[in-house]
Amino acid sequence: MDSILQPVFAHPAFLKACAAATAGARQVVLSGLTRSAKALIVAGLTHELRRPLLVLTKDDGAADYLQQNAAAFLGLLKADVLEGPRTPTGGTAARPQASMAVSVLPAFDCSPYEGRSPHPEICEQRAVTLWRVARGNVRVLVAPLPAALGRFREASRYRSLALELKVSDELSLDDLIEHLTGIGYEQREPANTVGLFSVRGGIVDVYPPEADWPFRLEFFGDQIESLREFDPATQRSRKTVSSAVVLPMMETPRSPRFFADLVRALAERNQRRARMAGGAQGEPTEARPAVPSCEPDWVPAYSNCFPGWEFFVPLVETHRNSLLSLFAGARRPAQAFDEMSGEAELREDAAPILVWDEPLELRQLLRRTQEAWANAYEEVRDMEPPRPHPTDIFLTESEFWQSLEGAAQIGLKELAVATRSLSVGTSPSLEVGSSESGISGLSLNTGSQELAAQTQASTETEPLTTDSGQVTKDNGQRTIDEFILLSQPAAKFHGAVKTWIEEARGGLGRSETTVLFVPHRKGGAPA
Hints:
Helix content: 25-40%
Low-confidence stretches: 79-96, 285-291, 334-344, 419-428, 434-441, 445-477, 523-527
Number of strands: 21
CATH topology of the domain at 35-152 and 317-412: Rossmann fold
């Protein structure tokens, strides 16, 4: 498959975009790409440049689509498979599956000012993704722009969310229960669905997310004596395992201490607001009313989990990182090596490349999102206790642009407008099918006809990244190199196999190469 897809990655537009992005001299845009072609380009960028990618999209739907298709292409490129490749020393390097190496960090499905918490599945997915990012197991991170605007903690805090358990490990049962409760698990008998755990004497059942089966831990004192999978329907043990990973259900551990600190932080904010209100009315300091010594009425409601508590976390714990700095500073595992080339899959100095899915659309979305948060805050700003300000939870626009300074960036666009062309000999045209269609495929036109590889230099007053939304280069403007790689969606036949066969035969006559992707059942049997 690598050889079949290689003509795409040898396309002059792709090569020039890679070279320009690596040099970091200018902003780079690849245009003429369908949604599926964007996923192929994303997989090709990380595969060819051996660098991690942070891909920004408009929403969760676009992120999920890009993740699924990019993971499929990355798997086909043999960049990530279940069995690790041979290392130069003769050992076997473990590596994540492609579906895990390409991960999505979803945005919250509600505003911080709606008085409700995000959906549990979103909290779970964010927690697991941030844990993987902190461990350096994510090669391509796809995030909707609102998620990328968040403030994040240190990587070490996210690495501590999951539990990696092995037989003979020393672990207090009380500490285990406290940790499971803190990362979002609920204690309930039986533990037959994801996110539940139960305790019966020295036996703990826990059902982590993304696990094929729940785990049963049996303790002898403070030592794990046995570790087994069990069937949640029958509660019977299936087989013994040597280790298990208990992934988190939420990205911020909850504990009585956290909520005590939150109440204290909210009380201090309440007092500051009262003093500021008194100062605005011109009252002298000694004439202002003293802060009442009795406990405010709102304290009991905020002393434990309440709807929307997740958005109050930055008031207690400092969030110093942007998403890009968290991703760039992640601890990466020992490098795996490609079997064919013998080169490391990611360069040692592999700083992430920032990829924009429709840059202009995302710039407009940035402003609309910031305005929506500001307007929502204005509606609740007088509530007691004070709500977090948007700048407590999210980066400001200027902070966001500043966090991207120095990063290599590539924009992906669907619309291509050519102003001049560079003639190339035999170059492939690209036709990519969607995973949503009944029959999906990839067609490469490798005939003898000449294809023009379009190269466009455009000038925009709003570049992909600035520290303030403006730049002072080329009289206040920045040149953006745009390279055009024309693609078109593959035809959808909706189960009409005969029609597809006729089309495939016609493609052979046109010197086209058609690749048919066939889904497989779990275990490797064709569907």
